[in-house]
Design a protein that fits this description.
single chain, about 30% helix, binds 1-O-pyrophosphono-5-O-phosphono-alpha-D-ribofuranose, Rossmann fold, about 30% strand, alpha/beta, 9-stranded mixed beta sheet
């Protein structure tokens, strides 16, 4: 069952296109790869935070008093270990008051099913907006597992920020989490037999942390 209310936003911008191309390049080394992930995460976050609630707050400038605004929601960043870690810092720079709640998931190589191995989500007092950070949305299993954890926590507004996605993962989210808003830099062609995104960028965790074993 698909739900027409699902919102998937592909952020189209020259900077996104430029940095994403470098990110895909097989010759890009880990240091540059990490900095590209950070830049793209900031660009995605800019788009994903457009509907944050603000409250009016006046401010005294050196000349006078004028109307202003401040953020009026608790925002939680949920980076998915490992690859999502690199996406958190640039978004904290944009939202210094954001809380960071880590989740550890890996995809079983044989079944492609997500396995949760770490959760720092607290038992209560949920944030108002949860931003799940993971560079890759492949089958969608990991994203569904992460969003389900936030839903159990009681987070009312769910958002997923991924650098690249496969159509299969996008479809899975539309079915499983029609209420979640999804922000990506690109939706690629397909998954291959090993459930890797094609053309993709390889394994974001391995490329970020220099653990590609040839
Ligand atoms: C990758 C990626 C996602 C997941 C996507 O993580 O960062 O978490 O796979 O695949 P899915 O949509 O099919 O669930 P991986 O399992 O490689 O772990 P890592 O970040 O530790 O490398």
């Amino acid at each position: 069952m698909t739900n027409p209310m699902s919102i998937v936003t592909t952020v189209e911008h020259p900077l996104v296109a430029h940095h994403l191309t470098r990110l895909r390049d097989r010759t890009t080394q880990p240091a540059e790869f990490r900095s590209l992930v950070r830049r793209l995460a900031a660009l995605l976050a800019y788009e994903a935070t457009k509907d944050l609630r603000v409250k009016e707050q006046s401010v005294q400038t050196p000349l006078t008093t004028t109307a202003g605004h401040r953020l009026d929601q608790r925002i939680g960043l949920v980076p998915i270990l490992r690859a999502g870690l690199e996406m958190a810092d640039p978004i904290i720079d944009l939202i210094p008051g954001a809380e960071v709640w880590h989740l550890g998931l890996y995809r079983d190589e044989e079944t492609a099913q997500p396995v949760e191995y770490y959760s720092k989500l607290p038992p209560g007092y949920p944030v108002d907006v949860g931003l799940v950070l993971d560079p890759m949305l492949a089958t969608g299993g990991s994203a569904v597992s992460a969003l389900a954890a936030l839903q159990r926590w009681g987070v009312p507004s769910l958002k997923l920020l991924s650098l690249i996605a496969a159509p299969e993962g996008v479809q899975e989210l539309k079915v499983q989490f029609p209420e979640a808003q999804v922000y990506v830099c690109a939706v690629d062609e397909c998954l291959n037999d090993q459930k890797f995104i094609v053309p993709g960028l390889g394994d974001a965790g391995d490329r970020s942390f220099n653990t590609v074993l040839e």
